[in-house]
Amino acid sequence: MKTSSHQSQLYKQIYDLVRQIPPGKVATYGQIAELIGRPRHARQIGYALYRVAPDSDIPWQRVVNAQGMISHSPQRQGSDDLQRILLEQEGIAFNHRDKLDLRRYRWQPDLLE
């Protein structure tokens, strides 16, 4: 799939930021959008991360929805289950409603770096 230069630059910005999320922490799609200066563009973050191969060096699994849940999609062809497995391997626990505690696991980047 062909992407524009602007879109490629945007995706690079998203991927560079997501690479900063440490193991055992998560960010939300909206949080990533705000941090790159594109508030209310959470869906675009989702599209960018959908394009990432499951075995990429981009820790795509560390981005969840605003409810602290994995956003399920039939197009992801099973990577929803993989996302949960990877997060659990990092020590992130889900409750009986398949939610993780964002107060506990949300990444708070040091914006002064």
Secondary structure tally: strands: 2
| Number of helical segments with 4 or more residues | 5
Provide mean pLDDT, rounded. Answer: 90
- Summarize the helix and strand pattern as letters: HEHHEHH
Structure description:
- By secondary structure, the chain is mainly α.
- It has one domain (5-104): Arc Repressor Mutant, subunit A.
- It has 5 helices and 2 strands, in the order αβααβαα.
- The protein has helices spanning 5-18, 29-35, 42-50, 79-89, 102-105, and strands at residues 27-28, 63-64.
- It has a two-stranded parallel ribbon.
- Helix 2 (29-35) packs across helix 3.
- The chain starts with a helix and ends in an 8-residue tail after the last helix.
- 23% of the residues are buried.
Could you list some keywords that capture this structure?
two-stranded parallel sheet, mainly alpha, 113 residues, Arc Repressor Mutant, subunit A
How would you summarize the topology of this molecule?
Blueprint: H1 5-18, E1 27-28, H2 29-35, H3 42-50, E2 63-64, H4 79-89, H5 102-105
Parallel strand pairs: 1-2
Helix pairs in contact: 2-3
Task: Give a brief rundown of this model.
With 113 residues, this protein is mainly alpha-helical. It has helices spanning 5-18, 29-35, 42-50, 79-89, 102-105; strands spanning 27-28, 63-64.
